[in-house]
Amino acid sequence: MKSTRSRCLELQEIDPDPYALSELVCSFADPTVGAVSGELILESAPGVRTEVIRLYLRIEKWVREREAQVDSVIGATGAIYFIRRHLYQPLPHGTLVDNLLAPMQIGL
Fold it and tell me: What is the pLDDT of residues 39-95, one digit of tens each?
């Protein structure tokens, strides 16, 4: 992370839509924004049961929307999120849920 010169770090587990990337980066026009998160939308595939995953994602989205109402989203979707580079803190070795810890460290 030290070698990057970008103002924002992109952390992702997917190949996102370029439009989504530009929409997320626009959020940093507000200097009070330290991190932004995308939304994972699952598409149906033949033979794949996604009902439980979809339920989990709906609940997670509902929680984040409520957190956002009080300007306090403590996590990001692991699929894609950005953090201002100067706010990023290296994660401890063995961290399993970076998309919770990295944004949470910004607010601490």
Answer: 877 777 777 777 888 888 889 889 888 888 887 777 787 788 888 888 888 889 998
User: Which structure tokens are listed for 82?
Assistant: 């950005």
* SS3 category, 104: helix
Q: Tell me the two tokens of residue 13.
A: 């587990």
CA angle at 83 for the pair 38 and 107, rounded to the nearest 5°: 105
**Spans of all domains in the chain:** 8-102
pLDDT at residue 89, rounded to an integer: 87
Classified as helix, coil or strand, 24 is helix
Q: Are 83 and 34 in contact (CB under 8 A)?
A: yes
**Predicted pLDDT at 29:** 92
- Tally Cβ neighbours within 10 Å of residue 80: 23
Q: Which H helix or E strand runs over 55?
A: helix 51-69
